[in-house]
Design goal:
Keywords: Membrane, Transmembrane, Transmembrane helix. Belongs to the oxidase-dependent Fe transporter (OFeT) (TC 9.A.10.1) family. It is a multi-pass membrane protein. By secondary structure, the chain is mostly helical. It has one domain. It is 77% helix and 3% strand. The chain contains nine helices and two strands; from the N terminus they run αααααααβαβα. Strands 1-2 form a two-stranded antiparallel sheet. The longest helix has 31 residues.
Length: 277
């Protein structure tokens, strides 16, 4: 339970903190503009996004547990895992690129929305939160399938979101000075490893379903060294999907994804050369 809980906690904290940061920016802009009439539609949009994300989680769980089995279930879980990895990869680089301009960007969008009416404010809040919510649900669902657990990932996600909400409130109240750049950097790096584990699980699902070859080509067998039921075996499997046995293709994909994405993630941003006339 510990590993699955930690992986989902990290996902909930990262995505929840991004959503909390955006919402705190929007609330601050409304307060400074003395437009508190926009708070109700803003929170309505946030609530609608949370409900939609929760509904997606219910649908995914229902489909996986009630409607599918065998090869179809393996394909469904593998495809949903790939979608989750694609979303988190895009979001990690988007946040890295937009962290410095996020406040001015959201302020400009909210100013425009206020001019269009309360419905536009609600729509802006909905879009800002649903993006994080869908990503979080897909990632936690994929992590839960890989860990073969349901309760621990759900509790971890809730705890992560609760921590993110608390941090967001502290940032809004200016009680704590959080180095967001450093926090997003290290949680992003950890999420890359979690995503690498999920894409490895997707490869495993495709191999079991017969879509990819090499299901019997074993890269390593540490079943006599790593006890699957031990605390460290559970932690490794639930967080970065390091299992006692793995195929060659699973290991190659894991290393290729983690190596490439971490290299691009930590690579210094190119310096802009001023254009001279």
């Amino acid at each position: 339970m510990g590993g699955a809980f930690f992986a989902s906690y990290l996902i909930g904290l990262r995505d929840g903190l991004e959503a909390a940061l955006v919402v705190s920016i929007l609330v601050t802009v409304l307060a400074r503009a003395q437009r508190r009439d926009g708070l109700l539609p803003l929170w309505s949009g946030v609530a609608a996004a949370v409900l939609c994300a929760a509904a997606l989680g219910v649908v995914l769980t229902y489909v996986a547990t009630s409607l599918l089995s065998g090869v179809r279930l393996e394909l469904f879980e593998a495809i949903s895992s790939l979608v989750a990895v694609s979303m988190v990869t895009w979001m990690i680089f988007w946040m890295r690129r937009s962290a410095r301009t996020l406040k001015s960007e959201m302020t400009g969008k909210l100013t425009t929305a206020l001019g269009l009416g309360k419905a536009a404010v609600a729509a802006l809040a909905f879009v800002a939160v649903i993006r994080e919510g869908v990503e979080m649900v897909l990632l936690v669902f994929a992590a839960a399938q890989a860990a073969s657990e349901t309760v621990a990932p759900l509790l971890g996600m809730i705890a992560g979101v609760a921590s993110a909400v608390l941090l967001g409130w502290l940032m809004y109240a200016a009680v704590a000075r959080v180095n967001l750049g450093r926090l997003f950097t290290w949680t992003g790096a950890l999420l890359v490893l979690v995503a690498a584990g999920i894409i490895k699980y997707a490869v495993h699902g495709f191999q079991v379903a017969g879509v990819l070859p090499g299901s019997t080509t074993v890269a390593y067998d540490l079943s006599h060294t790593i006890e699957p039921s031990s605390w460290y075996g559970t932690l490794l499997a639930a967080t970065i999907n390091v299992t006692p046995t793995a195929t060659v293709l699973e290991v190659v994909i894991w290393l290729a994804y983690a190596g490439l994405v971490l290299f691009l993630f930590f690579r210094p941003a190119p310096k802009r050369v001023p254009v001279t006339a």
